[in-house]
UniProtKB/TrEMBL annotation:
SUPFAM superfamilies: (Trans)glycosidases
InterPro entries named among the record's database cross-references: GH
Name this polypeptide is given: Chitinase
Originating species: Auricularia subglabra (strain TFB-10046 / SS5)
Highest taxon listed in the record's lineage: Eukaryota
Gene3D superfamilies: Glycosidases (3.20.20.80)
Amino acid sequence: MCPGLVVCCLIRVKDLGAFQLGTAEDWIATFTQALRSYLPAPQYIITYAPLAPWFMKDRWPGGGWLKGVDEAVGELIDWYNIQFYNQEDTRYDTCETLPHKSDGWFPGTSLFEIADNGVPLDKLIIGKAPGEVQ
């Protein structure tokens, strides 16, 4: 390893069915533990790109990202690149709905609502496509 070199590993999870069934969270937690054992901090950064709706409280059978992932292994993850796009009618497209109060199908999933539910704000990165793309 070169002194001062930091390597980042970004994991993008897109298995909607596994979250609906409640099986994704345990897999992600186990994978994260194994990955961190091979990629120790601070020289390696582990980050995920979860969908914003996965941070809904009490919605997902396996606890979703809040209970099933962040509470279980959040200390092993450096930050979350949250996907605030392609979310049906919850568009996160105003200065109110993206940072302060989400609308539509996925309440409680704006940036500050996620932080209010226990995820440190300094671990949350906004992922949003520019322009009309949703």
